[in-house]
Amino acid sequence: MRPHLKSGFQLLLGILLATVNAHSWVEQLMVIAPNGTFVGSPGYARGNHLRTSPEFSDLTMTYLIPPNGRSNQSLILPTDKICKETQRKQEQTDGSPRLQARPGAAIALRFQENGHVTLPENQPGKPKNRGTVYVYGTTEPREDENLLDVHKVWNKEGTGGDKRGVLLSVQNFDDGRCYQINNGPISENRQEKYPHVADKLMGADMWCQQDIALPSNAPTGKPYTLYWVWDWPTLPGDDPSVPNGKKEVYTTCIDVDVVDSPVTYMHMEAGYIQGQPLDKAAIPSQLAEIFGSPSPAASVTAGSSAAASAMVQSIEIQPVKPSTLVTVMKTVYVKECQLTPETSVTASSTASVVSASSAIVSG
User: Fold this and answer.
1) In this structure, what DSSP letter does residue 53 have?
2) DSSP letters along 105-122, please?
3) Which of 22, 122, 251, 317 is exposed most, by the fewest CB atoms within 10 A?
4) Which residues sit opposite 260 in a β-bridge?
5) Residues 130, 174 contacting (CB under 8 angstroms)
6) Strand, helix or coil for residue 182
């Protein structure tokens, strides 16, 4: 094989192998203006490694519970930590600063779907919504935080467990529009329906996102901690290799600097701007849950449309009555408490992965 062809083949092979083993984590956070546009500078998880970093690999960011190698893959121990070892302290890596946001701000947590949504046949037995993602928030994080002390224990009222934190958001992993570039019918349909101009950050893929609101009473001058939990079980009876099913949970631990400085974007008119680039804007339905409250159940979100209007009038964000905010979808699966797929999100794979490589992606 000619030297230049050999090097090109090795590069492609490396991309393929990395993609085959790819899973998902929160890659980036952005503040959302009232009109749905991402504004300001991005923020990142604790211990983050950008994909352009020499230290990056899938394993540097992926955290699985229960870990591979545990004989009982349906057993989560009370001592299993909610954060990866490299994310247990409130520390950032060079080039990956924390997001800065005001109390009550809407923010987008962005992640790649890596074929888990657009190639569902690669992971038999998974929920139709491709799993459920939860976001918990606290001003009192612990380095030794256990998953089972938080997940499905902390609630939106702040009365669950030890009462140190709240459930801020629950939604499908698949938000209904994100995709990885591959030749699967889901991807091809979404590529046509939700076009995206390729860029250096995402490539041609469309990242998934989960839009939430910080509590309006989050204290300024200190970090507010978010625990992102993707619950992605294999259901019993669908995968012959695990006839009884198995648990599969991935997490990302994040700190947001809550600041009280003026922000000019608050003068933007509230209301989602149609036609703006999809890769630089919130999911409209999720934004509506944050800035507009269509039902009493949604009154625990970031505020009402009146509050959104007030935000346009003044740089100061008006306080919202509830102190524990939540972005919750309305329809719930009976099985495993999964949400329906209509509101789901996917994220994309490595920007440089070509269509041929995407077709072989597996969980």
Assistant:
1) S
2) -EEEEEE--TTTTT-GGG
3) 122
4) none
5) yes
6) coil
